[in-house]
Amino acid sequence: MDAIHHIRDLEINVKREEIARLLGYGRSKVPERVTSLIGEVEEQSPQLLEPSCAYRLFRRHDLAHSPYLYHVDMAVLCLVTIGGKLEAAVEKHKTEGDLGRALVLDTYGSAAAEAAAAAANAAIEQELADKGLYCSPRFSPGYACWDVKEQSWILPTLESKELGVTLTEGYMMVPRKSVSFAVTLGDSPVESKHEHSCDNCGTIDCLYKLPD
Fold first, then answer.
1. Residue 212 within any structural domain of the chain
2. How distant, in Å, are the alpha carbons of 75, 134, 181 from that of 184?
3. Total-model pTM
4. How far is CA 133 from CA 73, 184, 186, 197, in A?
5. Which pLDDT does position 2 carry in this prediction?
6. What DSSP line would sit under 48-97, residue for residue?
7. How many domains does the chain divide into?
8. CATH number of 115's domain
9. Rounded to whole angstroms, what are the CA distances from 139 to 75, 99, 147, 153, 203?
């Protein structure tokens, strides 16, 4: 394994349309009251975000124990988090009975975590491109055939506690607004079997479906 790289204070762009999509308004107009609440959350939430990541290059012998990645020559594994402040604020709103604001803030956090993962991925792609290497699209444990239990070795090798991220007995990350992912790399990187989950999903009327 190569050395771990850290990026603190990732620059992210949380898109309003992504918040609306995650709230279930991807195919319908967002009500004015919800739009207003999203706007309020957008103004207040940036101070609750601490987006950062850690990533590391792994080679075939480092991945030999993984039932999912054992055949890959090289891959970068990455852990991203927005920290725990936002989730604490969500719980505070719930305690105060402000469930609508709690829901929108939690959804904003999900969109922020995804934006942080995208930013980390872009930084990794740029670094590797400078070395003449190309990345596959990113893919995460828990999707397709990659067992989420593999988080149990991924997080320690990325020294997740340095980012304040731990793992529950059910292999879920804490803070919840954290993302782990891999990209394979080389001249012709191997892609996950199901990169584009929406393209491969047979559900027709999903409220959360990504736009074409």
1. no
2. 4, 8, 10
3. 0.86
4. 13, 10, 5, 25
5. 87
6. G---EEEEEEEEHHHHTT-TTTTT-SEEEEEEEE--SHHHHHHHHHHHTT
7. 1
8. 3.40.109.40
9. 11, 32, 12, 16, 20
- For 93, list phi and psi in degrees, rounded to 5: -65, -40
Residue the block writes with tokens 């308004």:
25
Ranges of residues in the chain whose predicted pLDDT is under 70: 186-212
Closest CA to 116 of 163, 49, 176, 209: 49
Extract the tokens encoding 158.
Answer: 């990325």
Q: What stretches of the chain adopt beta strand conformation (E)?
A: 5-7, 52-59, 74-81, 134-135, 166-167, 173-174, 178-186
The tokens for 141 are 């444990």
**Residue 172 within a domain:** yes
Instruction: Determine the pLDDT at residue 89.
Output: 97
Dist CA 45 CA 179 (whole Å): 19
Regarding beta strands 52-59 and 74-81, do their DSSP bridges make them parallel or antiparallel, or are they unpaired? Answer: antiparallel
Cβ atoms 72, 63 nearer than 8 A: yes
Between the alpha carbon of residue 138 and those of residues 5, 97, 119, 125, 184, the distances in Å are: 17, 38, 12, 10, 8
Please choose, from the candidates 106, 186, 189, 179, the residue with its C-alpha nearest in 3D space to the C-alpha of residue 143.
179
Run of H or E residues at 116: helix 99-129
